From TrEMBL:
Residues 1-24, 49-66 have a biased composition (Low complexity). InterPro entries: LEA1/2/D7/KIN2. This is Stress-induced protein KIN2-like. Residues 32-44 have a biased composition (Polar residues). Residues 1-66 are annotated as: Disordered.
Length: 66
């Protein structure tokens, strides 16, 4: 292999490694986004449950519960 072939090979290797690194970073970003989405859904569900509990407590306190 002459110098130009070796340089081309090394450039190809570097490009492949950079692409793989980019793919890994995108996977991590996607995983972080999914985790955030799940956390926000859980937080929303907890807030909804607390609001329902508070509404029920007010109904009980005021005698408005059926």
């Amino acid at each position: 292999m002459d110098k130009s072939q070796n340089a081309g090979y090394q450039a190809g290797q570097a490009k492949g490694q950079a692409q793989e690194k980019g793919n890994q970073m995108m996977d991590k970003a996607g995983n972080a986004a999914q985790s955030c989405k799940e956390t926000m859904q859980e937080t929303g569900e907890q807030a909804k449950a607390k609001a329902q509990g508070a509404a029920d407590a007010v109904k009980n306190a005021t005698g408005m519960k059926n």
